[in-house]
Amino acid sequence: MRTIDDHQVRFGELAGPLVHGAMFFDWQLISTQELAAAVEYPFPYLVENDAIPYAPVGLDTTVHRYPTFDDTVSVEVTPTRVGDSSLELVYEMIDKDGEALSTAQMTHVTIAPEGGALPIPEETQTLIEDLVGDKSVAVGPSRDGDAASHYPTFEETFQIHSPYIEGSELAYFEEYPRFAGIALERYLAAQGVQLSDLAGDRQPFRLRDWHWEFKSPVRYDSLLSVECDVQAVTEDTVRVAHTFRTDGEVRIEGLTEYGCFTSEGEPSTFTDAMLSPFEN
Q1: For residue 31, what are the contacts with CB-CB under 8 A and spacing of at least 6?
Q2: Which of 13, 60, 64, 153 is deepest in the core (most CB within 10 A)?
Q3: Coil vs helix vs strand at 137
């Protein structure tokens, strides 16, 4: 099922010559809303009944190529499993030539007003089952190797001031990768390295592969801490374990691999200067 057809990358979606990594989260959210409408269990109905629609529980993603200015993006979303309260979807983002941009697998639940997962109506389950496809994808960061102890750990905090539009009182889905990216950029600056000075023909520290698990919602006006534990550094990857907390409670845990891409969006490698802030 294709849910976003030929979205053209526009000004305001870019970070330098390439789209901001948070756009992948945003496009997933848009396509989820269109799927929800197609199976007659739409976001407006759930929001009107004080539910939190299709909240992410687990997410694995791999970026194959970054879209750039005037590129086009289509999203094909395939349900791969539906349970009594959870829904697993595979998202395939492709360009105008049908070449892969990114692939993601996400599990969703709708959170009831009183908390906990809201059961999916039987008629909705039936409609989703008609769309279920046998699609297996291998995406997300590598789990190979042990985390090294000699790499840095750093932390930043953010006051959650999301747009208060839907009244759901939660931080927005696409904000979390932005917070993680800001924390990394501030760490680099503390080491005397400006990200803008590193960027040019190569665009470093772009989201490449990630596995995130969402434990509980991040409330509006809360203070969110983002702890970043660098676990591995190679010419291809900077691997960071992320832990998001409010009030001392873990809200999100994840493993994120940042990569380097050319200004045309193709995978590349880090230079020594880019990796120097992580040396002892």
Answers
A1: 3, 4, 75, 77, 91
A2: 60
A3: coil
Angle at which helices 175-190 and 22-38 cross, to 10°: 180
Residue with tokens 């409670």: 249
22, containing H or E segment: helix 22-38
Q: What is the Cα–Cα distance from 175 to 218, expressed in whole angstroms? A: 11
- How many Cβ atoms are within 10 Å of 114's Cβ, its own excluded? 8
pLDDT digits 0-9 by tens, 177-206: 999 999 999 999 999 999 999 999 999 999
Q: What is the pLDDT of residues 114-155, one digit of tens each?
A: 889 999 999 999 999 999 999 989 999 987 666 778 899 999
Q: What pLDDT, on the 0 to 100 scale, is given for residue 162?
A: 59
The residue with tokens 């999301």 is 162
Confidence (pLDDT) at 219: 85
Mean pLDDT of the chain: 92
On the CB side of 110, how many CA atoms lie within 13 Å of its CA? 25
Q: Is 259 buried (19+), middle (13-18) or exposed (0-12) by CB count in 10 A?
A: buried
- On whether the CB atoms of residues 60 and 105 are closer than 8 A, the answer is yes
Q: Which two tokens stand for residue 147?
A: 């985390």
**For 63, how many CA atoms within 13 A lie in the half-sphere containing its CB?**
29
